[in-house]
Amino acid sequence: MNTHLRIALGLAEGGVPVLPLRRGKVPFGNCRACAKNACGGRPNMKTPGPCACPHSCHAWAAATSDPHTLNSPQWATAWRTAAAIAYHPGGAGVTVVDLDNAAAIAWAHATLPATRTVATTRGEHWIYHGVMQSVNAVRPGVDIKSLMSYARWLGPGTGAMAALPAVVRVLAVKEPSTARGAPQALTVPVTGQSGACPHRTPAYLNRGIAMAEQRIIDAPSAVHATVYRTFLAVLSTHGRCGCLTEAHTARLFTAAQAKGETVRHCTDAWTNARTALGL
Q1: How many helices (H) and strands (E) does the chain have?
Q2: Between β-strands 151-152 and 135-139, what pairing exists: parallel, antiparallel or unpaired?
Q3: Orientation of helix 223-238 relative to helix 246-258, angle to 10°
Q4: Can you list the positions of beta strands (E) in the chain?
Q5: pLDDT tens, 23-77?
Q6: How far is the C-alpha of 49 from the C-alpha of 238, rounded, in Å?
Q7: What's the whole-model pTM score?
Q8: Which of the ends of the chain has fewer CB neighbours closer than 10 A, N or C?
Q9: How many CA atoms lie within 13 A of 143 on its CB side?
Q10: Burial, 120: exposed, middle or buried (Cβ in 10 Å; 0-12, 13-18, 19+)?
């Protein structure tokens, strides 16, 4: 038994769905019967179908924790030539925040709660309990891998695994389109509920606003989407406790306008973020 298969069986025993990867960190191609999804696809793919292919076809959807499948003759060639092992994070009940460079890692340390980390070739994987949709390039150097995706297995990592935080979930949220009717008032509601802020100290809020400003300022592209996601992240943390003031909102709007956003765009993004969160 080769090393990759031995490790894969150990992961499968723990309920982690796995699959082999060939050179280039990509899955093995579909067999002739499944080429170009002629089979109709495998269950749980975006286009579900009746495929019951015994081979390691259909990329992430081939991931399995069934030892009989992993040890089957149909998978033997793939394991003999495999260059690495991958797993389906969503199938294992986790989400991987894939940080591809030093700047992305620095952002994670400043923004995300500590969790289990795994070193990669160029960066780190931060792994959280919980699943969500997978989205690439949610910000520079950051991908989210969970449902309908795969991640390389690079070891168990270090640290205790934390629950998937809202700040990661909102990165995958796209701003809803808004009907362009009569101009809205430029005054925006700030708080959801009044009351004492439950967050540590006022310095915690000020640090969060400063990081949000910097996130907008550092956006190299997709500024409008970055502004919306940043507003969503701020409101998801502070929008219900009554700690946000018009001064905080003005700081965020100023940062957005410095990147070319209009006051109208800022107002729409803030309103849409509040609506998405039910505020």
Answers
A1: 9, 10
A2: unpaired
A3: 160
A4: 18-22, 26-27, 84-87, 94-99, 116-119, 124-129, 135-139, 142-145, 151-152, 162-163
A5: 988 999 888 888 887 887 776 565 555 678 899 988 898 999 999 999 999 999 9
A6: 44
A7: 0.65
A8: N
A9: 15
A10: middle
